[in-house]
Design a protein that fits this description.
This protein has 472 residues and is an alpha+beta fold. The protein is built from 14 helices and four strands. The chain has four domains: 66 residues, no CATH class; 72 residues; 158 residues, 2-Layer Sandwich (Bacterial polysaccharide co-polymerase-like), CATH 3.30.1890; 117 residues. Strand 2 and strand 3 form a beta hairpin.
Length: 472
Amino acid sequence: MSNSENPKHLSLLESIHAEDGHEKAKSPRERRKRASMHAIAEDGAKGTTQDATPPPQSSVQLIEERKQPHLRTGEQTSRDSSEAKSETVSDALTIELPRARKRRSFGGYLSFVICVLLPTLVAGVYYFAFASDQYVVHFRFAVRDTSTAVSTSAATSDLTALVGIASSSNPTENYMVAEFMTSQQAVEELQSRINVREIYSRPSIDFASRMDASQPIEMFLRYWKNMTTAQFDQVTGISWAEVRAFTPEDAYLVAKTLLSLGEDLVNEVAQRPQREAIKYAEAEVARAEDRLRKVRTELAQYRDKTGLIEPTTSVVLANATVASSIRGAIAQIQTDISALKKQGMKDNSAQLQSLRTRLKATEEQLKAVENQISTSESGDTPISQAVARYEQLDLERLFAQNLLTSTMQSLEQARSNAATKRIYVVAFVQPALPQTSTYPRRGVATLTVAIACLLLWTIALLLGRSIKEHLA
């Protein structure tokens, strides 16, 4: 049985020798590993020939020991297997890792040059060789109303000093002006005043900072927001603005014009209700004039109809005066008749008869005068009704005249308020002509580009290696 197993061990040895022939080109450590495995196989073959154990068991054990050296018994076998394992792991590390490291480092160096060094170099060349100088004009302002400035300062100075908070008389207008300075309306008004497109599209400006004058207003508005900054501080109630241009004179001109446009804006907003008040006052004046004209026309027509200019003065008062004198005459006649009767004159005497006739005529005259108040001269309309209608028309005339006077006064007041400039944009930090350029900050800009590219390159490299390891 032992003889029958020898060919198997020989074939195993042959296969190991064949593998050794293929592995001659490998490193010395690999050859040592293969030699130790060959020695183990030979020891197993010798032990099988000398042992009386059943052949299948020794053959299987030898194969298992070749596959798993740690199953061999004995101290020497354990040491050999552990050494073979450590040598295998160390060989794997020393063989595979340098190759991968060389390949990755070359790609990393190339990507570093392309993604970090090249953009930094381009940015440095642009900023130090081509970028145009930009001059900055700063100014700070607040909106004040002359009508409330005195009352506001007198009433709120103690309170604001107590709580330690600064106040502004017109916070809404301050915020409005700050927002207006970066709006499309400001761009259009600047274009109409100083041709701002030409200022920012001159050939002397570098290609990256120059604005194309043929671009639509939306594109120019984006460019304008990059060149102009305006903000409102809600705590202090003060607004500030910053204007950039490529020459000191242009920056100063744009800042002064922008400040003037902001003042025109707040006055336009403030005067709009005043103009509405003027229109309303003018409409009221026209309505009062129409009413007075209509009442006067009716009064003239009534006078023509009744034939009375002033019923209360020409008819009533005159009739009252006449009636009073007639009553006096009647009283005098009655007194004379009573005196003659007391003197003993008879009733049929001629003198008494004459006085009685005179008395009767005077009473008839008084009755006629009194009847004129109830009827007109033509007998159509009573004098009382004529006087009542006249008084009504005259009252309407007086009311329309007073209304016209009041509305005309309101109109004059509204016009005076509209003509007075009451809101001012007070620039307590005035725009000044700059002496040196502020932007671009060439070193800072180049360093920023370098840091940004380095961060992006690092993130991309880590992501790429992580994805590669997961896929492997």
